[in-house]
Amino acid sequence: MHEVRIVNVKLENLFLFSYKRIEFNSQPDTPAQEHNPTGANMSAQDPVRYVMVGGFLGAGKTTTLSRLAGIYQQAGLNVGIVTNDQAEDLVDTGILRNQGYEVSEVAGACFCCRFNDLTECMQNLGEAKRPDIILAEPVGSCTDLVATVIQPLKHLFNRDFSIAPYLVILKPSHGRKILAQQGRTGFSPKAEYILKKQLEEADGILINRCDELTSEEVEELKQLVSRFCPETPVIAVSAVEGTGFDEVAAFLEQQGDFGTKILDIDYDVYAEGEAELGWLNCSTRALSDAPFDLDQLLLDLIDGIRDQLHAIGAEPAHLKAIGLWEGFFGVANVISSDSPTRLSLPCRQQVAHTDLVINARVACAPEQLEQIVRSVLQQQAEKRGLELSDLQLSSFRPGRPMPTHRYSSSTM
Q: Does 3.30.70.360 match the CATH number of domain 278-396?
């Protein structure tokens, strides 16, 4: 049996690239009483282009942002990224930061509930070099972002930001079942409500992971989405391979009044649907006397968690793990019970130590989820002769959304 020591360690110490993080307590922002409440002033030059990409958990938002950031950097533009999660220790931030991007993270609540802090994050991104474009990734279980994020940005910061079309990504595995209303989705109607509302408020919908689908399956999804959102453009893409991203970049270049679809949201249903998901973030350091295959460890961790979830009938919305070693990193993930575990970013290294971060979003009680993750970590440690130290783990259900602002009509 290997000792697990609990110490106070911050995730930023695990990574090589520096970044800025804004952290919060459990209380929402106090609504602003006047325009531009934070005092941010980015309007001395042309407005910064604000590109927000939403979508349900596991849709591929981080990979999409990484792909877009690469396109914009190749065009000579300075890019800033803001990630978002209900808790600390976000794998997505680590991935993007280790790819060399400047990243700010809003941790502890969604953009809509921390609007003032979102704008502060974006202001901080401009301290060293003003970004031309800010890519923003909201929490995957959030919706109503047009009324609570885009419209307030337009109204309070209209000279600072130019709003791009709001894109929402559809994950094929759960999206097909929910839109077709066929078979077991693994989620209640209240959780499905969130995915549907995300699609309804989009200016454009991306069907992602088309590299995993046949042409017939892609066409079926396009028809399902077009029936559900008949006026919304649909683009089939693969964020991993880059397929369709010339069309995505051209779509985002459009100028106009975007982010105007303000929906009628039942916040009771929304809150209950979000609260059905168990949320877990975990970080630890693994050490061994002999080198081990980091990629295989990541795959075994995700497979082990997935197998135990399957045994209790719990549907994963997203499981992912990142392992870091001496400037190298690998990422493994799974996005549903009927999808294979993928090594989305291979490390290809034999290592004697690694810093691990695991994120899990699952339709089960957080206490069950925590017990499973602890069990799988211990199993893999014993299998490889690893010593686990500096373990940090938090599990919970998201609280009720309490937006800082909510606009009932569109503003120019």
A: yes
